[in-house]
Amino acid sequence: DRGSLTSRLVKASGNRFSVKVLSQREDVPLATEAQALNITVQTPVLVRQVILYGDHIPWVFARSIMPLTTLTGRVAELRNLDNQPLGARLFSDSSMSRETVEVAYFNAQELAVPIGVSNSNAMLWGRRSVFRLDQKPLLVSEIFLSTFEPNRSDDIRLIRIHMPTFGEPRTLLVSNPWLRLVRMDRPIGVYLLMWPTLWALAL
Predict the structure, then answer these.
(1) 31 to each of 25, 40, 59, 195, how far by Cα in Å?
(2) Euclidean distance between the first and final Cα of the chain, in Å?
(3) Contact 130/56 with Cβ under 8 angstroms?
(4) What is the mean pLDDT of each run of 10 residues along the chain (203 residues)?
(5) How far is CA 190 from CA 137, 184, 186, in A?
(6) Distance from C-alpha of 29 to C-alpha of 63, rounded to nearest angstrom
(7) What is the pLDDT of residue 175?
(8) Whole-angstrom Cα distance, residue 89 to residue 96?
(9) pTM score > 0.90 for this model?
(10) Across the strands, what pairs with 143?
(11) For residues 34 and 171, is the Cβ–Cβ distance under 8 A?
Protein backbone atom coordinates (compact mmCIF):
# COMPACT_ATOMS: atom_id res chain seq x y z
CA ASP A 1 0.00 0.00 0.00
CA ARG A 2 1.62 3.24 -1.15
CA GLY A 3 -1.29 5.55 -0.31
CA SER A 4 -1.72 7.97 2.54
CA LEU A 5 -2.02 6.21 5.88
CA THR A 6 -3.39 9.41 7.43
CA SER A 7 -6.41 9.53 5.12
CA ARG A 8 -7.14 5.86 5.79
CA LEU A 9 -6.93 6.34 9.54
CA VAL A 10 -9.24 9.34 9.36
CA LYS A 11 -11.81 7.24 7.53
CA ALA A 12 -11.34 4.18 9.76
CA SER A 13 -11.83 6.29 12.89
CA GLY A 14 -15.00 7.90 11.61
CA ASN A 15 -13.19 11.27 11.45
CA ARG A 16 -12.22 10.95 15.14
CA PHE A 17 -8.54 11.27 14.31
CA SER A 18 -5.91 13.34 16.10
CA VAL A 19 -2.15 13.78 16.39
CA LYS A 20 -0.15 14.19 19.60
CA VAL A 21 3.43 15.43 19.30
CA LEU A 22 5.73 13.54 21.69
CA SER A 23 8.89 15.38 20.75
CA GLN A 24 10.51 17.45 18.01
CA ARG A 25 14.19 18.25 18.26
CA GLU A 26 17.41 18.53 16.31
CA ASP A 27 19.51 15.40 16.69
CA VAL A 28 21.38 12.82 14.61
CA PRO A 29 19.80 9.78 12.92
CA LEU A 30 20.04 6.15 13.96
CA ALA A 31 22.37 4.08 11.80
CA THR A 32 19.54 2.41 9.86
CA GLU A 33 17.88 5.79 9.31
CA ALA A 34 21.10 7.29 8.00
CA GLN A 35 21.48 4.35 5.63
CA ALA A 36 17.94 4.78 4.29
CA LEU A 37 18.54 8.50 3.69
CA ASN A 38 22.06 7.94 2.31
CA ILE A 39 23.58 10.29 4.88
CA THR A 40 26.10 9.84 7.69
CA VAL A 41 25.17 9.23 11.32
CA GLN A 42 26.69 12.65 12.13
CA THR A 43 24.32 14.50 9.77
CA PRO A 44 22.11 16.92 11.74
CA VAL A 45 18.43 16.13 11.38
CA LEU A 46 15.09 17.16 12.84
CA VAL A 47 13.48 14.20 14.63
CA ARG A 48 9.69 14.39 15.02
CA GLN A 49 7.87 11.72 17.03
CA VAL A 50 4.08 11.62 17.25
CA ILE A 51 1.20 9.36 18.17
CA LEU A 52 -1.71 9.03 15.75
CA TYR A 53 -4.99 8.50 17.59
CA GLY A 54 -8.19 6.98 16.29
CA ASP A 55 -11.27 7.62 18.44
CA HIS A 56 -8.94 8.71 21.30
CA ILE A 57 -7.02 5.41 21.16
CA PRO A 58 -3.30 5.36 20.26
CA TRP A 59 -3.04 3.51 16.96
CA VAL A 60 0.27 4.43 15.36
CA PHE A 61 3.64 5.72 16.52
CA ALA A 62 5.30 7.76 13.78
CA ARG A 63 8.93 8.87 13.68
CA SER A 64 10.08 11.28 10.98
CA ILE A 65 13.71 12.09 10.17
CA MET A 66 14.25 15.32 8.24
CA PRO A 67 17.83 16.37 7.39
CA LEU A 68 18.34 20.07 8.11
CA THR A 69 19.43 20.45 4.48
CA THR A 70 15.92 19.30 3.51
CA LEU A 71 14.28 21.96 5.66
CA THR A 72 15.12 24.87 3.38
CA GLY A 73 13.01 27.02 1.10
CA ARG A 74 9.31 26.26 1.22
CA VAL A 75 9.97 22.84 2.79
CA ALA A 76 11.12 24.66 5.94
CA GLU A 77 7.44 24.94 6.90
CA LEU A 78 7.59 21.30 8.03
CA ARG A 79 9.19 22.62 11.22
CA ASN A 80 5.85 24.19 12.15
CA LEU A 81 3.41 21.30 11.75
CA ASP A 82 2.50 21.22 15.45
CA ASN A 83 -0.47 18.79 15.75
CA GLN A 84 -1.09 18.62 12.01
CA PRO A 85 -0.36 15.24 10.36
CA LEU A 86 2.77 15.17 8.24
CA GLY A 87 1.14 12.66 5.89
CA ALA A 88 -1.56 15.11 4.86
CA ARG A 89 1.11 17.67 4.00
CA LEU A 90 3.18 15.20 2.00
CA PHE A 91 0.37 13.76 -0.09
CA SER A 92 -1.04 17.20 -0.93
CA ASP A 93 2.27 18.34 -2.43
CA SER A 94 2.56 17.94 -6.21
CA SER A 95 6.36 17.59 -5.97
CA MET A 96 6.14 14.61 -3.62
CA SER A 97 7.71 11.32 -4.64
CA ARG A 98 8.09 8.16 -2.59
CA GLU A 99 10.65 5.39 -2.66
CA THR A 100 10.14 1.71 -1.83
CA VAL A 101 8.07 0.94 1.27
CA GLU A 102 9.98 -1.27 3.71
CA VAL A 103 8.02 -3.47 6.14
CA ALA A 104 9.35 -4.91 9.40
CA TYR A 105 8.17 -7.02 12.34
CA PHE A 106 10.37 -6.43 15.39
CA ASN A 107 10.08 -5.66 19.06
CA ALA A 108 9.21 -2.08 19.96
CA GLN A 109 12.72 -1.26 21.15
CA GLU A 110 14.29 -2.21 17.82
CA LEU A 111 11.68 -0.06 16.06
CA ALA A 112 12.70 2.96 18.21
CA VAL A 113 9.31 3.15 19.94
CA PRO A 114 9.63 5.05 23.26
CA ILE A 115 9.11 2.98 26.42
CA GLY A 116 6.19 5.16 27.49
CA VAL A 117 4.36 4.36 24.25
CA SER A 118 4.74 0.57 24.16
CA ASN A 119 6.33 -2.26 26.11
CA SER A 120 9.86 -2.57 24.72
CA ASN A 121 9.41 -6.33 24.19
CA ALA A 122 6.09 -6.03 22.35
CA MET A 123 6.27 -7.38 18.80
CA LEU A 124 4.93 -4.80 16.37
CA TRP A 125 4.49 -4.31 12.63
CA GLY A 126 6.04 -1.25 11.10
CA ARG A 127 6.80 0.30 7.75
CA ARG A 128 8.98 3.13 6.53
CA SER A 129 9.81 4.93 3.32
CA VAL A 130 11.80 7.88 2.04
CA PHE A 131 9.74 10.76 0.69
CA ARG A 132 11.03 13.64 -1.38
CA LEU A 133 9.67 17.16 -1.58
CA ASP A 134 11.36 19.27 -4.25
CA GLN A 135 13.81 16.35 -4.50
CA LYS A 136 14.75 16.79 -0.81
CA PRO A 137 14.60 13.57 1.25
CA LEU A 138 12.94 12.76 4.56
CA LEU A 139 12.23 9.41 6.20
CA VAL A 140 8.88 8.48 7.73
CA SER A 141 8.45 5.38 9.91
CA GLU A 142 5.00 4.22 11.04
CA ILE A 143 4.66 1.59 13.78
CA PHE A 144 1.27 -0.02 14.41
CA LEU A 145 0.69 -0.27 18.15
CA SER A 146 -0.96 -3.22 19.90
CA THR A 147 -4.00 -1.00 20.57
CA PHE A 148 -4.55 -0.52 16.82
CA GLU A 149 -8.12 -1.75 16.26
CA PRO A 150 -9.81 0.31 13.53
CA ASN A 151 -13.48 0.00 12.71
CA ARG A 152 -14.45 -2.15 9.76
CA SER A 153 -13.98 -0.14 6.57
CA ASP A 154 -13.35 -0.54 2.86
CA ASP A 155 -9.85 0.87 3.12
CA ILE A 156 -8.33 -0.65 6.26
CA ARG A 157 -8.96 -4.03 7.73
CA LEU A 158 -7.21 -6.24 10.21
CA ILE A 159 -6.73 -9.87 9.30
CA ARG A 160 -5.47 -12.41 11.82
CA ILE A 161 -3.09 -14.82 10.15
CA HIS A 162 -2.39 -18.04 12.04
CA MET A 163 1.29 -18.96 12.06
CA PRO A 164 1.51 -22.14 14.17
CA THR A 165 5.30 -22.20 14.21
CA PHE A 166 5.60 -18.68 15.57
CA GLY A 167 3.14 -18.69 18.47
CA GLU A 168 -0.01 -16.61 18.70
CA PRO A 169 -1.82 -15.23 15.65
CA ARG A 170 -0.35 -11.90 14.54
CA THR A 171 -2.38 -8.88 13.53
CA LEU A 172 -1.43 -7.64 10.07
CA LEU A 173 -2.57 -4.45 8.34
CA VAL A 174 -3.55 -5.21 4.75
CA SER A 175 -4.88 -3.27 1.82
CA ASN A 176 -8.17 -4.30 0.24
CA PRO A 177 -8.91 -6.35 -1.71
CA TRP A 178 -5.83 -8.32 -2.65
CA LEU A 179 -4.96 -10.32 0.47
CA ARG A 180 -8.62 -11.10 1.05
CA LEU A 181 -8.81 -12.27 -2.55
CA VAL A 182 -6.19 -14.95 -1.81
CA ARG A 183 -7.98 -15.79 1.46
CA MET A 184 -5.13 -14.89 3.77
CA ASP A 185 -7.65 -14.52 6.57
CA ARG A 186 -8.78 -18.13 6.03
CA PRO A 187 -5.61 -20.04 5.09
CA ILE A 188 -7.09 -23.53 5.56
CA GLY A 189 -7.10 -24.03 1.79
CA VAL A 190 -3.38 -23.29 1.66
CA TYR A 191 -2.72 -25.82 4.41
CA LEU A 192 -4.83 -28.51 2.73
CA LEU A 193 -2.78 -28.15 -0.43
CA MET A 194 0.57 -27.61 1.25
CA TRP A 195 0.73 -30.66 3.51
CA PRO A 196 -0.01 -33.30 0.83
CA THR A 197 2.50 -31.58 -1.46
CA LEU A 198 5.22 -31.56 1.21
CA TRP A 199 4.43 -35.18 2.07
CA ALA A 200 4.76 -36.21 -1.58
CA LEU A 201 8.07 -34.36 -1.94
CA ALA A 202 9.39 -36.12 1.17
CA LEU A 203 8.67 -39.59 -0.23
Answers:
(1) 18, 8, 26, 42
(2) 41
(3) no
(4) 80 92 96 95 97 93 97 97 94 94 86 86 90 97 87 46 36 42 50 64 66
(5) 41, 9, 9
(6) 11
(7) 42
(8) 10
(9) no
(10) 61, 126
(11) no
**Using CA atoms, how far apart are residues 19 and 82, in angstroms rounded to an integer?**
9
Sequence-distant (6+) residues with CB within 8 A of 162 are 169, 187
Distances (CA, A) of 45 to 33, 61, 186, 191: 11, 19, 44, 47
Query: What digits encode the pLDDT tens for the residues 111-148?
Result: 889 888 988 888 888 889 999 999 999 999 999 998 98
- pLDDT value for 176: 39
Q: What is the pLDDT of residue 149?
A: 75
Distance CA 40, CA 30 (A): 9
* Rounded Cα distance, 193 and 134, in Å: 50
User: Which contacts of 114-122 are long-range, i.e. CB under 8 A and separated by 24 or more positions?
Assistant: 114/22, 114/49, 114/61, 117/22, 117/51, 117/58, 117/61, 117/145, 118/61, 118/143, 118/145, 118/146, 122/146
